[in-house]
Amino acid sequence: MTDCLFCKIAAGDIPAQVVHRTDTTLAFRDINPAAPVHVLVIPFAHYPDLPALAQADAPLAGQVLATAAEVAKAEGLTAEGYRVIFNTGRHAGQEVRHVHAHVLGGAPLGPLLAR
Ligand code: 5GP
Ligand code: ZN
């Protein structure tokens, strides 16, 4: 996708602070972190959201999850815990239409939802 921000990051055309990379996935720090550790995990392949990815390539969806777990471990989040979020669609406030997992941790994260 030529006009997709995360495809451009995946291609190296837009710089990002990459923390982990596999053959199929890339993990990089969120530009506007919401927690002490805030890393985004994407598949290199473009899918707009989680249901599109899961339907088209379930093994790749699993690789995104495995990378999220690897990142959490590498960032030292395993002992105290962390949260993995896929914002999907309007009600969730999904801004970037290239599927991504948010890996959040490094401090108590508070309730699941702001009210
Ligand atoms: P969403 O709201 O789609 O679930 O999350 C998109 C995330 O991408 C946001 O947390 C936002 O801060 C992050 N983001 C937006 N633009 C950039 C960018 O150019 N570089 C990086 N590293 N993160 C970005
Ligand atoms: Zn994309």
Instruction: Spell out the helices and strands N to C.
Output: HEEEHHEE
Strand content: 15-25%
What general outline do the C-alpha atoms trace? globular
Query: What kind of sheet is the major sheet?
Result: 5 strands, antiparallel
Secondary structure layout:
Elements: H1 5-11, E1 18-21, E2 25-29, E3 37-43, H2 50-56, H3 58-74, E4 82-85, E5 101-105
Antiparallel strand pairs: 1-2, 2-3, 3-5, 4-5
Helix pairs in contact: 2-3
The protein binds guanosine-5'-monophosphate (5GP) and zinc ion.
Question: Top keywords for this entry?
Answer:
115 residues, alpha+beta, 5-stranded antiparallel sheet, 5 strands, 22% strand, binds guanosine-5'-monophosphate, binds zinc ion
Structural overview:
The chain is α+β, with helices and mostly antiparallel strands and 115 residues long. The protein has helices at residues 5-11, 50-56, 58-74, and strands at 18-21, 25-29, 37-43, 82-85, 101-105. Strands 1-2-3-5-4 form a 5-stranded antiparallel β-sheet, covered by helices on one side. α2 crosses α3 (58-74). The longest helix has 17 residues, at 58-74. The mean pLDDT is 97. The chain binds guanosine-5'-monophosphate and zinc ion. Zinc ion binds next to α1.
